[in-house]
Amino acid sequence: MTDTWKKFTMQIENILGTFDTMNDWADLIEFLSRLLKILLLNMPSIGNVPRKSLVAKRLMQCLNPALPSGVHQKTLEVYATIFMCNF
Question: pLDDT-based confidence at 43, cuts 50/70/90?
Fold first, then answer.
C-alpha cells in the first residue's frame, strides 16, 4: 500500500465516521461537500475509492425521499465524480 492510498483511505474513513453525528440536512450537505473535496483531490491520480461499500451505503442514505432536493443534488454530484474518475 502506498502512502497516498493510506492517506486517502484515512481521509475517507474519517469523513465516513462523521456521518452518524449528522443532525439535519444541512449537516448532510456539509458531509457530502467534504467527501466530494476528498474525492476530487485523490481520485484522478488513484482511480479507486477506499471503503466502497460504506461510501455507497452513505450515498444511498442521502437519496432518501424525505430529504430536501439540495441533499439529493449534492449526492448526485458525488456520484458523478466517482463515475467520471472510474471511466
Answer: confident
